Amino acid sequence: MAEHFPMGYSAFPPYGFGMPGQTGMYMPQTQTTMPMNPVMPTPAFTQAAPVTKATKSTKKGAKSTGPKKKAAKKKPAKKKPVKKKKPAKKKPVKKVPKPKLTKSGKKKKERDPLAPKRARTAFNFFLDAFREEYKITHPDVKGVVHCTKAGSEKWKTLLPAERTPYEEKAAAAREAYLKAKEAYISSGGPQKFKLAKGPPRPPTAYFVFLANFRKDRAASGAEPTSIKDISKLAGQKWRELDPQDKVPYEQKAALAKAEYLKLKELSAEERVAAVGVKNPYAQFL
C-alpha cells in the first residue's frame, strides 16, 4: 500500500482530518475541515503620505506654492545701556575758622591793625643779641625753642649791671608806645574800629531811662555811689513806673533802633565818616 501513496502520506489519515468529501467516524459532519498548513491573509496597510510643510500650511488655509523658505531669524534689538545718573555734587561747606583762644580759654579780641603795638621788654632786647651769638656757637641747631630756652636760662644768671642796657632800651620803647596810644585814642581809633565792623546796639527803653536817672541823680547833688548801687535803685524805680510813664522812653528806644538799622545798611567807610567819634544814639538819651 505504501507504493500507491506518495511520501508523507499514510493509508489512514490522522484523526480529525479526512479527504475532501469524506465522512466517517473520525470526522463528525458538524466539524469543519481546516487546511493542513493554514496561511493567514496579511492585512493591506495603506501607507500615509509624508507630511510636508506645504500640507501644514494648507491646513491653516494658506496657499502652498512650493517648499517654503526658512524665514531669517531676526536678531534681538540691542538694548541701549541705561545711563546712570551722576549724583548731584554737594556744595563745599565753608569751613568757619575756629576762634582763637587765650591761655585761660577765653576768646581773643580782634586787634585793630592801626593800633600801636605793645612796647618790647628788656628780655626781648636781650634775646635778640643772644640769638646772634647762639647761631654762631650752635650752627647745627634749628628752630626757636632751643635758643629761647637757653636765652631764658642765661637771662636769669645776669647781674643787675648787665641788665641795665636792655632795661634802658625797654623804657624808651615804652615811652614811645604810650605816646602813640594816646594819639590813637584821641583820634577815635577804637570807636572807628568798632564802627567798621558794625554799628553798636541801640539802647532799650530801660537803658534810656537809666541814662536819664543818672543825670537827674548827679544834678540833685546826691552822694556818689557805686555803679552797682545806682543800677539797683534805677531798676527798682523802673519796675514801679506806670505803663504810661514808660511810653516816652519806649518811643526814644524805637527811634534809636531806626537809627541803628540805617547805619547798618551803610558801608564801613560811610559809617565811620557819618558817626566819627560821637555816640550815634546820644540824641535819644
TrEMBL record:
Biased composition (Basic residues): 56-109
Domain HMG box intervals: 116-185, 199-262
Gene3D superfamilies in UniProt: High mobility group box domain
Top-level lineage group: Eukaryota
Positions of the UniProt region annotated as Disordered: 30-116
Major site of localization recorded for this protein: nucleus
Record keywords, A-Z: DNA-binding, Nucleus
Pfam families per record: HMG_box
Biased composition (Low complexity): 30-43
DNA-binding region(s) in UniProt: 116-185, 199-262
Subcellular location: Nucleus
GO CC terms in record: nucleus
Molecular function (Gene Ontology), one example: DNA binding
SMART domains: HMG
The protein, known as: HMG box domain-containing protein
Lineage of the species this protein comes from: Eukaryota, Viridiplantae, Chlorophyta, Chloropicophyceae, Chloropicales
